[in-house]
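$ fold --in a.seq
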Amino acid sequence: MRRRPGWPSETFLARLPEASRQELLGLGPVHAHPAGRVLVRQGDPGTLLYVIAHGLVKVTARTENGKESLLAVRVRGDLVGDMALGGSPRSATVTTCGPTTTCVIKGDVFLAFICRHPPAALAWNTFTGERLRWANQRRLEFAGYDSDVCLARLLLALLARHGRPTRHGMDLGVPLTQPELGSLIGAKESTVQKILRDLSVRGLVRTGRRRVVVTDVPGLTAFAELPPSSAENHRAKP
């Protein structure tokens, strides 16, 4: 399906025809949220979904022992809250990472929209499948590779979906702390710190507060034990 300009290319809204996208954004009220606002809470029933029109949110889940893990980040053009529209309990919490604007849509209204628009139904199925594949890939890498390779692969995956060019290289485009990066690969903060220092010494990344810039995409691709041909796929897409 041809991507549409104006929205990050891997998001749900980018996959919709213009008329369908405009109709979807008119199905519910638009709300502005401050940083730290919980949109969806783990365990609550799922009756609403949120279309992110502006901003960034993080998806987290708390285990039975009380530990919180970061599962994913979502950007403008993405949907959140759509995985539990049947009324089943929410499997994760969604929190804004900064000022965020959303269109809030009732679950039954969204499902009726999907039924009226087959291209939107296909886009939703594809979007859902890609989210599941992304999560499964992280689990496979966690089981099959050392932490340094897992982190390199995670950085490249984030770069491919959210990255943006800067004068120093490719910024990940999402402000993640080192503990949050660690939770995505099942590693301690101290381990992530050590790996990032090593990658920095190798000239592959530059780090700052809640920021990682990949300065050498082909080099990081090789470090991640990925084929050279995949380096271009891990560059930011328009």
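$ fold --in b.seq
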Amino acid sequence: MYKPNRTYEHNDQSRTVVINAKDHVAGKLATFVAKHILEGVPVTVVHAENLVFTGPIERGVGRFKDFLNKRKLTNPLRGPFHHRSPSMLFTRIVKRMVPKKKYKGQCALSLLTVHDSCPDDLVSTHCMVCPRAMLKYTADPIRRFYYMKDLCFKFGWKYFNEVERQNKAVEEIKQKEREEKEKIAERESSIRESDKFKRRVEELMAQIE
């Protein structure tokens, strides 16, 4: 039976890697994610709708139309399944990078979670980025690109407006958290600059000496 190189508990949130996929190239980020889940590291990807494909969007539309024409002639219910949501499209990209028919690949895919926008329970979680997969570090500045949400919206993704509203709500929550941290920092700095605090520090230093 396959055992990952490093085993982690699924409910251990401290060891889960949370990635903010905004402005990341989909294929490059998928290689990073596939490597980690094969090593046994749980990975959660948020803001999958802001993943990027390089090239003109007309090319992406043509490729997706060709993908929609693919089906099993004898029984179409067996696939391939044409998902419209960005989270499922990215999951499919990662799925094609692991041995999905083996037990090894199935264990790896069970460690992957992809979300459109950001769930409420992950708003305050520290998210990492992958510099080698970000558009501004990897692609030519003059190269055209398009977002995955625009492609999915063209082919019938129904939750575009709901995801945009969720993103605005998440941004408001983060803005409030930043303001609270600034207030706490100002309060701490005012306490450090007060005469009472300085006298107390001098008393403690005198006791140490």
